[in-house]
Protein 1
Amino acid sequence: MDKMKKETIWKYFGVKPKNPDQVSVVGIDFGAGELTACLATLRYKELGLEDLTVDNYNTRWAYTAYNDEHKIIGEEVIKYPEEIYTNFKKNPEDAVENYGVKMEGGLTYRYLMEKTFFCLVRNLLKNKIIFGDCRGQQEKEIFLFVGRPSSNAWESHAKEYQEILQGSLHELEAKEWELEPGVKIKVKLYVIVYSEAEAAMASEYYREHMDAKETIVVIDGGSSTFDCVTVKNGKVIYEYSRQVGAGMIEKNMFDICLLDLDKEAERASMSVDQRRREHLANLSKIDFNEGVHTIELRKRKEDYFGPDGKRAYDDNRYSIYINSSRKRWDIDHDFMDLAIRKMPVRVERSYLDEEDRFGGNHTEDYASFWDAIQAFVLGAKARCIEKETQKELKVDRIILTGGATVMPFVQEIVKEVFQVEQNQIQLEQPSLTRRFSVSRGLAYMGYVELTKYQEQMKIKQYIEKKLEAVRGKINHQIRTTCKEEIWKEVYIRQIEQWVENSSMKTLHDWVQITYHIPIDVVRSDLGEFMKREQIIKELNQILKENFHKLFPKADSEYEYQMQQEEILTAFEGELKQIQIYLFDLLDTKQKIRNLFRFLGSREIGWNTELSKEEKIKIQDHIKRHKQEILNKLGTQIDSKTQEAVSRIYTTILQNIYQSLEDYIEGLTPYFIRGATDVKNGRN
């Protein structure tokens, strides 16, 4: 989780666009029981979001996946009611294990994920608008930004989720897609997994429902999960998610019918495990050929609440055939109250290491769906704190989005937990486009991430050019320090020890002493040099100018600064110490003899025993001939320090790149609002 936060999505997921100007960006809300997809387009400098899978409330897609014979998405699924799955979005940790946890019918979560995603993307590619302008291209790059719940259980396994979805697309990449008669093109599909809560936030920015200076809580309620994001000053402070979704209500509704719980209401409170056993025991009594399916139950539930949360139909009935006998139920207040408030539900864990006192870090059974939603909202409120001080935040607004938030009882729980009226919090009711907020937000964030990537590449090239201009000076400074340290250590301090050590009588005793160039000294000298040259100051000026160029109307200054100390200290412990052997530096015995010829006529070899007086003469001679000695040894010293010079420069460059990534990631709120400016023609 922490690693993902420190890296760009491109680095974390190991993908990047070859030509950012020509890619298509699609946001996909891969939900439970229904999905939406949206294309981000930029025409004449105007950003637009185009829904790909749905036209209106009545024609949204339900999705599912079947066996190899039936791979279907959409309304046609009701032809195969016994094979419908509407909530198989399992945590990747479980889906990957042994190729997936088994479901009813012997299928696995992973299999259903792969097949469903394949069908979805296949159908999306039939919509030619997704290809955009392909003139001059042999292959179209399409980036699919797919939503994930905002819990750290999902975030920790985002790569596994990406791999599951990415692995289903090879067949689509292998074929050619006909754009018009005689014009075909191949596609390269990339999956990037993104937080649904952040996407919902971005969608609200796109709709201009969020002020940059407000503290806002965005709650996204879906069929499989409820997600929340807390935003302050345009920045995400906390995310929170639970594996509780409105799909649980439909399961309860089905069990009411299957087990006659409306007639035996006292049995409705039986445990989740007991009800599950009774469900399986009675499932064989159902005649699926007569049209019973969970999609129909979903419609009945939504008909009960209506598109605006108010009951739309009084005559809302549901029927199934049990033991060849037709039974009918009125989906009325008592029926829905039983499904929502009186039947236990099981909520899987959402957090791994992070402690959640409201139950998110372990699987827990709740007395009802109502209680499970209340626990989620309590957990969301507990995240409304300042990270540094742990003080409670003053929330200005709560925005509800996602199909499940239209249910009045969800809104009532939010009002009660957050004490909306007492704290003067503005509560935004779900919009009519709430079902598409995540997919639109994902497409929007895809556009933002692509824009960030393009800007990072531009600034990176500029920084590389600036740094390359002083590379020679940096290398010279490193070598100068290395030479000076070799002189002080090998020729001054160590020879003084040699002179005083009566047991070390020969030249060989001296030259075999090893030496490690102290990186901290190199770093210190390099730091002073970089300050004199104002290298980091110039780079920070580049970032500042770039910020004002990108966001000329920004209502606040961006205070990010590259820190020279961090750039220089980051390679501590990573760079191998340089080991110098004086024997290698002096090269040959002859050079030793020539160097110490002043001692007299007797021949001096490696193993010649020397008196203390002779060693002192050598010491004095060395001190008087520093430059001559270093000049003679210059080539060898340069050779020995070349690796250090190269690695230090490379590491500095990498640290600057990392700092640049941090700068770009910190610009995310500005990019989001900047994209809004593009949408309205203000940039």
Protein 2
Amino acid sequence: MRRNTLFFILIALLFGAGGAATISCVRASASENIRYGFPDIFDISYTPDTLHRCTGWFTDAGAWFGFTSPERAAWTDGFCGPFSLDMNRRQWMAKSAVTVTPADGGKGSPDSVCYYPGELHIGSAFGNGRIGQRLNFIDASSALLSVENTTGKGLSYTGLEWAPEISLEQVGNTVLASHPSGEIVALTFAPETEIKVDAGNYVARTPVRDSDHVVISFFADREDYDASAERIDSILSDPASALAENGRRWEDYLRKTLRDDMPDEYDRIAVKAITTLVSNHRVARGGLLHDGIIPSHAVGYFVGLWAWDSWRFSAGAAAFDPELAKNNIRAMFDYQQPDGMVIDCIYTDPAENNARDSKPPLVCWAVDKIWEATADREFLAEMYPQLLAYYKWWYAKRDHDANGICEYGSVDGTLEAAAWESGMDNAIRFDDVTMLPNNEEKDAWSMDQESVDLNAYLANECRYLKKFAAILGERFDAPDQTDRIADYFFDPERKFFFDRHLGDRRSVGDPGCEAYTMLWTGLAKPEQVEAMMPVLQDTTKFSTYIPFPTIAADNPKYNPRGYWRGPIWLDQTYFAISGLRNYGHDDLADAYTRQVFDRLDGLKEGAPIHENYGTHTGERLKAPHFSWSASHLIMLYQEYGGGGKVKALIL
């Protein structure tokens, strides 16, 4: 990031550490407060109604609730929400739990809206002045509302359109809004505030003051609220310290990630990616026994933890929040099976967990990212036996003919679960697969083809396990097929890497993204990579507008919206680009990175980062605010131009 760039001058002063000031959403000096160099990081303006649904919230610190800023055409004089982000009870608790106007009444008109990383602002203009509001999450339970008032009047707070099931009561200087589910919104005002609860709503009035604070808290039940009352009071009694801690946390995230030598617009992409991961952080709750990062808070079915998603998220977060990265891995291993299997996905309700399949093994790579960031030997020692057991599980339960080369499979024998285990649910290479039982108990099944990406991942994991064993003084006693993989899966006639059929060992399918893993892991031989280059650089196949689709773009089965049958997935694009660096093609890798950064729709503007993108258009496709894509954008950013470049681990 260029520290000497001349930024736009603020029209008015930024909020201070303990008070508030008028905000216009323009770029400010990043010398002391980096986040103020990145205004409008996302556009999440949305006023709840029945006509359309929201696709993203402001949330932070692992919270299970979030807010939006109001739409200018449907202004509310308050942040919208909170919204319960739990998968099982996703609901608006109110259109706006806290609206703020002058004590003598009146509705404001939109003045400003801005989303900085970790900080949301709105402003309302009134005939006699302005009320500005700033929202910061202090912890997973509480957000602090800071109010600045230039109207010369006292302040009047009230809720707007509470959910029908909500009941309100006053407890001291707190208004409790309770839902039959058990969830509670607690609004805690300064002690001298006059509060009345009546007819399903509340009014809280203050004397004339220039600034004020309200703590907005959210709890799963009354017991959680009772346990947190003292913490809420401490926030309200010293808001400056609470806001300063929020500021330090975000400064730390950004300083650990941003580079001094990158264009401003690429810095913005990295900051969006960090904000996406932090927004998808959830603290331990119910069946999730450790903090973790969900795929997307904006999509209800993605409010859980998936195995290879979690490995990717931890790799992306390792440098700026290593403790979250560690816990994200621990959360999945909390459900490791006695035979070593790590199951597909877990939820707050364990009854929803999916143990029919696993996911591709990338966890040792993620653990190594954490090791490189922290040198935490204790964490390495904690994880090593579990990592080794998981690695051995693949050879015990997913090697049908015991030849040391594994297949994707499932516990229940279904192809559906086996395709899920690959992570590439509907990939064309699985169109003609047959399932085979691997034992008499028939609790382990394999596809009838050996997958190149799976075995490349396993060989890569083997390298990391050997590294960890050497650091810890442990013994590595597991299969090592590293030296076999390159020649086994390379087709010298078609000059590409393919899966192989178990029966006649023929190459299976058409050129696809599974081959990129051989470059990313550094397992491919240099002459094999050079033989692949004409296909990889063919603009009708893989060197497309956004590079490296999931299958060659000229394949008859290519579908521009076909999930794993055509669109761009940024993890696969990252594997290809990072893989090219392993073989000396740095300039080409940089050129492809620029295509990604410059051409993905909305990436440099306020649009959320999406699950996948159009190959020929860069259009946004599936789930917004997607952690998987964010993680790989961070890694593309880190490696661009040779900065922080890490060659494939070769032992």
